[in-house]
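Query form — protein Thioredoxin

QUESTION: What is the three-dimensional structure of this chain?
INPUT:
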Amino acid sequence: MSGLAEVTDADFGTEVIGAGLPVLVQFTADWCGPCRQLAPVLRDIAAEKADRLKVVQLDVDRNPETTVAYGVLSTPTLMVFHDGEPVRSMVGARPKRRLLEELDDLL
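ANSWER: The structure tokens for Thioredoxin are given below.
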């Protein structure tokens, strides 16, 4: 999709809930224009913050269990998980600077 690591219903528990770092999950879809706009921003953040933050994406159409479990109703939804719990949820694309500001207290 966008070059970000992709998680699924099957490995969400291992890759996100069981991760040692905070995890930023982009709930996305192939047909979602704003999701595609956000992908390069997330790739940059993933590279810059690799030691403090894991960034992954989950396709809502192919992974309905996780999407429903976390109440995701629109894409892109960004959700930050820390110690297995969702600690922040943001809906919609945003510029890199704003996203980093919103994540600052979690890193």
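ADDITIONAL NOTE: The mean pLDDT is 95.
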